[in-house]
Each structure stands twice: as structure tokens, then as C-alpha cells.
Please model this.
Amino acid sequence: MSAAHPAPGALFDAVTLGYLVVESARLDDWRQFGEDALGMELAHRDAHTLALRMDRHQRRLIVQAGPGEDVLAIGWQLRDQAALDEVLARLRRRGIAVSAASAEQARTRGVAGYWQCTGPKGLGIELFTTPLLNEAPLRMRTSAFVTGQSGMGHVAITSRRPEAMLAFWHDIFDARHSDDIVAHISGLTLDIRFLRLNPRHHSIAVACTRGRRMDPIRTRIQHFNVQAATLDDLSAAYVRCRQLGYPIVLGMGQHTNDKELSFYVRSPSGFEIEYGWQPIQVDEQAWQPSIHQGISIWGHRPQQQTLGDKLGEMGRALRSLVGREFMPNGF
Model:
């Protein structure tokens, strides 16, 4: 007997962020950044691929050799085959092409198999149920990362078409609205919406400029978050990043909405990593979305941003007005 398919809305808490795939020509830099700065374990390295481990999953952060210096894809883990079938059916009903990956492709991701499609902003969406596991003790500079039921972290994405972007995550994954932040940065007003897929306060954040829609970010994501297990782990990672010379974009601070303590460091490919500790989890019975003014209760001060960085963002924002941001069919 085939498994029953989830009812509408039933995919909530059946989806977690499973892995991130980056394309970069800087594999040596990524090895040092991931292992020595972020404190992950180097799981695999050859001429074409670098893979880092955070927990029992064989691979959580995968870097492929190439010129892009960008995130290629996000792997989303589905709870079971019925949940995967439901997501695939929703994509196909929208006319979005999906295809099964080869066994070799699945091996590079550290999963038994996966399906793939192109999501918002051209970001690869990869869907799997079964990660390949490594039960050997972890050898990391960090004591542990918080993953498990909530996944490996969250991603933040800037968009000129936020309504379509939000509709994709709501309609395909049954994302729920956690809250909003209104932020004033570099003379622009940003509206940021936070979406959850499971008990983690948010797995996806979508930011847009108010008024004229512009996108100052070169990469498909603005940042990716990992959650340290202890405050000591957070502090030690901050010290390592500074000692190794990785640019601290925003210093230590605490967010207004999820209360996470964190700092932001620029990765070798240009997007940022938020390294955080102890965000709140949502109580589904009592939670009500709210609007917060500003991203931080305290801290998160810019530290190593140059005039060149700001001019580059301004130039990209203006150039973004020319093209149309990619959205999958039906959104």
C-alpha cells in the first residue's frame, strides 16, 4: 500500500535545511575558512570538491570548483517519501521541471539520492530524504553545532520580487510567517520577512527595499547561518575569524526577533556567514507574528566595511534595476 500524501499545510515540520552547495575557484581558502575559522570538520577534499561536516551527516557544506563564487544550490531534507512526493507534485502542477540526480551527483552531496529544480533567483533546489551518515566521532574546533530536527541553519535572500519569492516558499513547502523586521541600512529602508519550516524560528528570510525595488547583493543569498552549541563556541569562532584575517562584516550583537547572539563574517566567495547561538524556538500554539524595528537589540556594528564595499553595493543596486529577477514558472 502506498503512503498517504500529506494534506495541504501538512508539509510544515517535514522540511529542514540539509546542505549548501557553493561554486568557487578558492578551494584552499574555503578549506581554511570552513575548518580553521568556522570550526567544521574537513570530510573530503580532491581537486574538484571540498566537503565539510557538522554532525552525523557526511556532508553539510559542499564547495565545487568553478568560477561562480556563489551558492549553486540548497539541499532540503524531507521527512519521508510521502513528503517528497507531495513537494514534487506541487512543483509539477506549477509546470516547474524536476529531474532525478545521478548516483554520482548524489554521492557528491552525501545523500542516497535527490531530485532537483531551479528555484527563485536561479537557486538550485535539491530535495532528498536520506542523508548518508558518518558515525565516527567529530574532529572539530567547535564542540558541536545545533542541527537535528531544525536543520543546519537558515539562509537570507534579497529579492526585487518578494511577493513571488514568498509565495514559492509558502506554496511549495508550507512555510509559516514568523515575523518581520523593518531596518534602515545605508539610507535604504528594508522590509525583511522571516519564514519557518520547522521549530527553528526561521529557515528562510526574504529582504527587499521599500519603494523602488533594488538588489545590492551580488550572490544568490545574502548570508547563511550556522548555530553554535555553546556561548564559548561562538566566542572562540569570533576570535579565530579575526585572527585568520577574515573580514568581520557585523560584530557581535543580538537580534530583535529571534534573540540570537551572533556575528557576521565574509566567506571566501563573498556572501556572509552568520555564526550564532541560542535563538528562540517558536511555540506553535501561542505564536503571533509581529513587526520589529531594527535588526538588533544591541551590537551588530559594521566593522570592516570599506568605502569600496559601499560603492560596490550601490552600483549593483542600480544595475539590478535593468534585469528581471528569475522566478520559477507560476510565481
